[in-house]
Amino acid sequence: VVYDSIRHPDEVRYLKRHGVIIIGVTAPVEIRYSRVFSRANDTDHVSLETFREQDQLERSGKSSGQSIEACLHLCETIFQNDETEDVLISNLKAYFNTHYAKEAHLPCHD
To answer: How many other CB atoms sit within 10 Å of the CB of residue 67?
Structure first.
């Protein structure tokens, strides 16, 4: 199971207590902004400056209790997602195959 957008440390702690392996995936703010902007959803049309401000609030714990940085510190490992999706998936598979001795079957987007 892949959990997306975990932003509160209590969510991470809860999942870990139930045997979930938590892997962090992050990317530089400029790359994330570009990806969000390219989705072209109505809520995604903000300036890079606004995006950075919101990102800082969510990362620091100053946004409704969300603290992405605290969540990342609780992860088993963190992957930098600053290349293609194929590169990320390849890196994740290699990690799981090395650390868990099972062939990884990661989800793909059709």
So the answer is: 21
Cα three-residue angle 91-30-45, rounded to 5 degrees:
120
Q: What is the pLDDT of residues 52-104, one digit of tens each?
A: 998 888 888 777 778 999 999 999 999 999 999 999 999 999 998 888 866 65
**pTM for the whole structure:** 0.77
DSSP codes, the chain: --------HHHHHHHHHTTPPPEEEE--HHHHHHHHHHH--GGG---HHHHHHHHHHHHHT-BTTB-HHHHHHTSSEEEE--S-HHHHHHHHHHHHHHHHSS--------
